[in-house]
Amino acid sequence: MEPDGILLLRALTMPADANPNGDVFGGWIMARLDEAGAVLAYEMCRGRVVTVAVGPIEFGNPVKVGDAVCVYGRCVHIGRTSIAFKLQLWTRRNCEEWTRRVMVTETVITYVAVNDEGKKRPLPEYLEANREEILSRGYME
Ligand SMILES: CC(C)(COP(=O)(O)OP(=O)(O)OC[C@H]1O[C@@H](n2cnc3c(N)ncnc32)[C@H](O)[C@@H]1OP(=O)(O)O)[C@@H](O)C(=O)NCCC(=O)NCCS
After folding, report:
1. Where are the domains of the chain?
2. What are the angstrom distances between the C-alpha of 17 and each of 7, 54, 65, 88?
3. Which atom of ligand 1 is nearest to the CA of 120?
4. How far is the CA of 85 from the centre of ligand 1 (A)?
5. Is 80 a pocket residue for ligand 1 (Cβ < 6 Å)?
6. Single pTM value for the model
7. CATH number of 6-137
8. Is the CB of 77 under 6 A from ligand 1?
9. Candidate of 82, 112, 114, 115 to mutate for ligand 1, largest count of ligand atoms within 8 Å of Cβ
10. Cα dist from 80 to 21, 40, 51, 90, 134, whole Å
11. Ligand 1 atom with least separation from CA of 50
12. Which of 106, 22, 28 is closest to 11 using CA atoms?
């Protein structure tokens, strides 16, 4: 299995990101997913966005301190004021026994484009005009 979508974020996990057991805290991973999706949402919505909904999140593999993690994403829904991305977080373990890249989790996060007052605004017209291509490629600026 290969990562799905474009590379949005790379990060090295640090001791400060660990839970009391010594593995990376699940909340840190969830924050990276939202952060990566927000980067894509800001670009594609050409301005301010807020997170409105996050899909279920299951952790299939642990993330260890010292792992390099990557978040990949693709656009899966274009609404009137909302846009949704499938986001995957993968890790590559920095040790001899396990250098494979493994998927830790994936989810769908929905963002709403908002104006300066924080009220929803219509998505830019190019998104609707290029809907098929965007959903097929996963991305367009
Ligand atoms: C997001 C927000 C602006 C929506 O305002 P609203 O006037 O209530 O808007 P609506 O209920 O019409 O929803 C707007 C869009 O979000 C979608 N949406 C709302 N709730 C959703 C959910 N649970 N899952 C998926 N999409 C959802 C709607 O379908 C609609 O999409 P569309 O216009 O593309 O059809 C408002 O709820 C808000 O400010 N929420 C707080 C956001 C926030 O602080 N996030 C965390 C920090 S970033």
Report:
1. 6-137
2. 21, 21, 7, 19
3. 3
4. 15
5. yes
6. 0.95
7. 3.10.129.10
8. no
9. 112
10. 44, 17, 15, 31, 15
11. 48
12. 28
- Three-state DSSP state, 65: coil
* 36, 101 contact by CB (below 8 A): no
Chain segment 48-95, per-residue pLDDT in tens: 999 999 999 999 999 999 999 999 999 999 999 999 999 999 998 766
Query: 3-state class of 130 per DSSP?
Result: coil
- Find the 52 Cα to ligand 1 centroid distance in Å: 5
- pLDDT for 137 beyond 70: yes
Each residue of 100-136: pLDDT tens digit?
789 999 999 999 999 999 999 999 999 999 999 999 9
For residue 94, what pLDDT is reported?
Answer: 65
Measured in Å, residue 73 CA sits from the centre of ligand 1 at 20
CB 92 within 8 A of CB 104: no
pLDDT band at 42 (very low <50, low <70, confident <90, very high): very high
Residue 49 Cβ inside 6 Å of ligand 1? The answer reads no
Q: Name which of 5, 33, 13, 48 is nearest 135 in CA terms.
A: 5
